[in-house]
Amino acid sequence: MRVRLSEPVIKAQGLGKTYQFHRQPQGLAGAVRGLFHREATIVQAVRGLDLSVGRGEVVGLLGPNGAGKTTVVKMLCGLLVPTTGSLEVCGERPADRSHTFLSRISVIFGQKAMLWWDVSTRESLKIHRSMYGISRDDFRTTVARLGDLLGITDVLDTPVRHLSLGQRMRCELALALLHRPTLLFADEPTIGLDVQAKVTVRNLLRDINRTFGTTIVLTSHDMNDVEALTDRVVVVKAGQAAFDGNLAALRAHAGIPAEVVLTYRDTPNLPPDVSRKSTKDGPRGIRLRLGDQPVPELVHAAARWGELVDFRIVEAGLDEVMSKVFSEGGERP
């Protein structure tokens, strides 16, 4: 069954996953007791999660450590079977791990390599061609197109161990996209990369989404990745979707006031009540939280503190926003 353009690529309703394990009592006596009387413990990692992702979307799946997002991704990939609820990905039941389903998804891990270390990227691509039953003509066309898009044509025949980290990440992307998946899971895709390589990978993921219409689910702790790539974020806390919307709505949800950055020609003469609320922004600049005071009134007052040469309103950083959202209500123990 092929997923139609109007259908969600991911459709989850009331999704839940429960783990059961046995606690090991401490000490030798406890270990002996555990052989005969084992205490069962049940942990609900995900509970009642509803999620719908449309074709061509780039969605950030975020959450603090232990929130359940990794369990969600594993269920979406078919690596875990849900305990409760219904789940369809690309029109298939992921847990069946059918060839049709696996040919429509792909995963790229920032911390795990899929390329063979001692051979060239082209040889790894040939192995995947056989795995996915790609014709030789389609293989040549797709490799040429990916080579141009990712800028790796000149290194396809170089052993992977001789590639730089940035080149290797681009080659990993080529391997993940060889079979033209409908859905790509990108798990910490820029971890360990330098600043320039991170920007390159972000641009490539954006180009892949626009060129191929690939739906991307991004999991990352790097808020620069999230801000650069996602149209929408889903925040998972205590196994539930605590927020689902765009970044502007997320900032509004966090309720952190914007800041005003004032720059003066010389050191400003601030009133005592303003000095207590301000922070320095360089030798002649100050930052103030933008509260309920109308902006024109603030500018008029700021002009009395010195010769004002610049005035900027700065939104709260995404790291600060996410920290606020993650801390609301605490984390699941």
Account of the 3D structure:
Helices cover 36% and strands 26% of the residues. The strands form three sheets. Strands 5-6-7-3-8-9 form a six-stranded mixed beta sheet, sandwiched between helices. Strands 11-12-10-13 form a four-stranded antiparallel beta sheet. It has a three-stranded antiparallel beta sheet with strand order 2-1-4, with helices on one face. It starts with 9 loop residues before the first strand and ends in a 6-residue tail after the last helix. With 333 residues, the chain is an alpha/beta fold. Helix 5 (136-150) runs antiparallel to helix 6 (165-177), helix 6 (165-177) packs parallel to helix 7 (195-212) and helix 9 packs across helix 12. It contains twelve helices and 13 strands.
Question: How would you briefly describe this protein structure?
Answer:
The protein is an alpha/beta fold. The chain contains twelve helices and 13 strands. α4 packs parallel to α6 (165-177), α6 (165-177) runs parallel beside α7 (195-212) and α9 crosses α12.
Mean pLDDT: 86
| Uncertain stretches | 1-5
The biggest sheet amounts to: 6 strands, mixed
Order of helices and strands: EHEEHEHEHHHEHEHEEHEHEEHEH
Look at the helices and sheets and give the structural class: alpha/beta
